Amino acid sequence: MNIYKRIIVVVSGALFILLVLLAAIITDLNDRDFPQAIGSESRLNITFNESAYSITEAFSKLVELDTRLDLGLVKIAPDLASDGDGKIFVMLNDEEDLPDEITGFNGDNKVEIVGKHRLANSYPDGVYLVTGDTSHLNEFVDTLKDEGVKVTRRDVSIFDSFIFVVQERGFTTVIFASLALISSLALFWLLVRARGRALRVLGGSSIVRIQMQDLTEFCVALIGSAGTVAIIAASYVGIFHGWIYVSTFLKILISLQAVVIAISIFVALIMSASAWPSVFMLATRQPAVKSLRSAAIVIQALTFVLVVATAAPAWSAYKQSSAKEAEMTQWKKLSDQASIVFTTDIDEMDRMQPMIGRMIKDSELMDAVALSYTYKKEMWAPLDFGEYSGVSFVNQRWLNLVSKGVKQPTVTKIALGSISNDLVHAIQEEVDILSREEHSKYLFEQLQFFEPVEGYQLPVAQGGGGESLYFGDDILLVVVPSLYDSFNDTTLTSMVSSGNIVFTGITATQQLLEQHSLNAKALRDRGISGELKIVYIAEEGILQAQFAAYLVWLQNLSMFALMIAFSIATVIRSLIAAASQAKRDFPLRLAGQSWMRIPQNRVIKELFVGTILVIFVVMLQRPNEIEIILMTAAYGLLIGPMSHLFAVHWCFNGVSKRRI
After folding, report:
1. How far apart are CA 90 and CA 113, in angstroms?
2. Which are the contacts of 542, defined by CB distance < 8 A and separation ≥ 6?
3. Distance CA 386, CA 234 (A)
């Protein structure tokens, strides 16, 4: 194999390694959705909130159907026992023959499989895996839907995982990088074959035969590289991740490689047809590679624009992912917090309000209850919030929870006079409406006003839906001195039912219910048929934040791959330019001209065009943070002169040794 084929193999190997990473990501995502270690082939998203089932009745129905239809249902839940980092699988039927724990494709964390007792304080809503017989799955879905339960079914599909990956904005850069590398490879192959192709045309060889020979050699080099990478990657997956994943991984990788090789051949064919050397070029002693110059310029310009244009979105995606990682941290801080779910009618809730109030009063004495109720702008429209995006009523316990582990202050006190009169008036009116009648006159004077320190994204719970956190550094915090003294029983009960008031610890909260005659037995004795259920508030938030944090490093990988593609395209463009100008450059160097001086004109032109392209991208995107674009553009404009210097060296040596 000559040196040029080796270069094709090495560079295409880099591309196929990128595809290996992409295939590993798709395999991992597929295994996250359908864990192969427990034989899951279907996934159900079940929601009971529009049905007539209580939490206990919902679980009973699921267990009954699971046992009768032999579905082997397993619920996904976060592993709150280990600081909320990770997840566990909970069997609905304890007789299922599943291992105690499994390690997924990712292999970082083992997933424990536990019995249904873990669901004692959880919602029935969520994602369930089917690990048993799926032949009766349609009957299961239809039965629940007939009862008003919302059920969404997904079956295992590698194609769906691939589509999900492609739709993620961060993976668009990987696609661009692959296309850029493909075009650069095809261009390089035509570069090294240009002189031989021209001589064969001059010798009367058939154009079709020349095309077939060149494309066949190019294809063989790509297939050899792809096969080698696939064998090594499959062996690595089998040894370090498990042989059960090799089949899925190879299906994905070979499919990606086949698409890339097909596109590579197509691009090479298009370039070959558009830059076909003629006998006239040989007769006039023009370089055979001269016809490739236009294609090289276009590829270099496009990859440069792609690098600069994707820098700002990639950085923005990274910051958003970092914010999600911060959200994960906050959810972990709330992992032991519980909310109370009411499965009662309105009349029964009215009867329980005084007991709820007394329970909160006792919880405050133990510093075990936290409040966060946030009004966003649209909730108080058309009130002008001024510099704030929301107003959140909180107590000190909430501030202590979300700032746990942070050494520096997270909030700063502000004077009432710095808040707009309209907003102050709205807060006072809200307090008058929600407070206890005997305390309403003095409550507003006891309120304290804070705001997050600059740059700190403080989490608060959205009003009416405490399971959703809102992060912001422009939130007005209204700290109430006491929940029981500040709000009447009706308001407290409403805030508890919406998850805006949370309690510390499942066991401690259950004891509170029993002490205040709010447990199931005491309610039945009072003639109340409904029930109060204690659930963790962090389950869904942790699962969502985990996946978002998983994508952080993928964004960086995509951008890095595109920069590699641009660098390769720039080097190839410089080689073509140096080969085209070899008749000029060689004697200049012999005459003592410096290496930097020889390609000076070419470098100046590229810097000028590159600067124009950067300005165009900036004007088109108008990014908030232009610094990242300028840093990326600086790299792009620096790699050009370095590539020209290398190319001039290479061509000078080639001419000296009569290879060019």
Report:
1. 6
2. 78, 80, 84, 328, 331, 332, 335
3. 58
The better pLDDT of the pair 185, 393 is held by 393
Closest by alpha carbon to 141, among 133, 129, 130, 149? 149
Q: From CA 611, how far away is CA 605, in angstroms rounded?
A: 10
Stated as kind and residue range, the H or E segment containing 533 is: strand 531-536
The one-letter code for the residue type at 253 is: L
Give phi and psi for 496, each to the nearest 5. Answer: -65, -45
Question: How many CB atoms lie under 10 A from the CB of residue 407?
Answer: 6
Q: Strands 110-114, 87-91: parallel, antiparallel or unpaired by DSSP?
A: parallel
Tell me the sheet residues that pair with 460.
470
93: which 2 tokens? 């039927």
Question: pTM score, two decimals?
Answer: 0.66
Q: Which helix or strand (DSSP H or E) is residue 548 part of?
A: helix 539-550
**Rounded distance between C-alpha atoms, residue 254 and residue 226, angstroms:** 8
For residue 452, give the 3-state DSSP assignment: strand
Q: Is the bond preceding 382 in cis, omega lying within 30 degrees of 0?
A: yes
Q: How far apart are CA 138 and CA 119, in angstroms?
A: 25
Tokens of 636: 């792009």
Sign, CA torsion 379/385/390/392: negative
Q: For 417-470, write each residue's pLDDT tens digit.
A: 888 888 988 888 888 888 887 656 677 888 999 999 987 888 898 888 766 778
DSSP-assigned beta bridge partners for residue 394:
372, 479
Assigned token pair, 258: 């086949």
